[in-house]
Amino acid sequence: MAYQVPRMDELQSRAWLALVWTAELLPAALDAQLQADSDMTHFEFMVLSTLQQAKGAALRSTDLAAAVNSTMPRLSRVIGKLAERGLVERRGTEGDARVKIVHLTTAGRRELVRAVPRHIARVKELVIDRLTSDELEGVTAALEPLVERLDPQQRVGFGERAASG
């Protein structure tokens, strides 16, 4: 018999463990593919993708950290590495040099465009193509309310964000 989470019935336990293990295993699989094919981590891909989707391909570092669900120290380290590779630029704002705006460079956009086809193919291989349309609808219906509950301020994702300052 499979492990059952205490204080949950069998269905609750199976659902919870499937969600937890997906959340643990999927990022590692995506990271491995991106590192092998594009020499970037999944987190770096998310940072570049978020910047590409932002108005003007730029965000304040604090807004970028929220959008990718990161701490500022982690984001700062990654932005530093991406800047060394010429994929992003950090700029101060007029009037307040402490506020940093992170801009996606032309080289960063180019690297992202190169990475997307293989990355999406891997996402489809691992997840999308394994589910029927009805199952995809079910996953969406189940997970979107959880995301709303976990992020009521709608900080993460690709909302309309402008680099202010």
UniProtKB/TrEMBL annotation:
Coiled coil: none annotated. It holds the Pfam family MarR_2. Residues 12-148 form the HTH marR-type domain. This is MarR family transcriptional regulator.
